[in-house]
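User: Predict the structure for this protein chain, please.
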Amino acid sequence: LQQKILELRFIACIGETLQERESGKTEEVVFRQMSVLSKYVKDWTNVVVAYEPVWAIGTGKTATPEQAQAVHSVLRKWLVDNVSQAVSDSLRIQYGGSVTAANAQELASQKDIDGFLVGGASLKPEFVQIVNSRQ
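Assistant: Here is the predicted structure, written as structure tokens:
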């Protein structure tokens, strides 16, 4: 069964609670989550990571572009230090957490945000604006 799981392509969602963010534990939490993931992943081409802060899921709150970029940036460094430079360079790290047409373009402009994991907004006409935010 473990071998079959490793052959799947999947999106691993990681993120912290509001209490963890407010107590300065964001990096500790996402690094712990990545550490568990890295024990099981042999082929990183089958993985997308979505930084999806728990406090921003379905709440209407979203990380600022600067907050999201900061987490994505430290995730890339963690990958260099714990997996490889090649994986850090190639792994898609998306942002998920109340992405809307109003915030997608600014989030998309951040260096280390490779796209979005969109929830409820994918059911609305504005979804096309989110899709086009990378242009």
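The CA atoms of residues 7 and 46 lie 8 Å apart.
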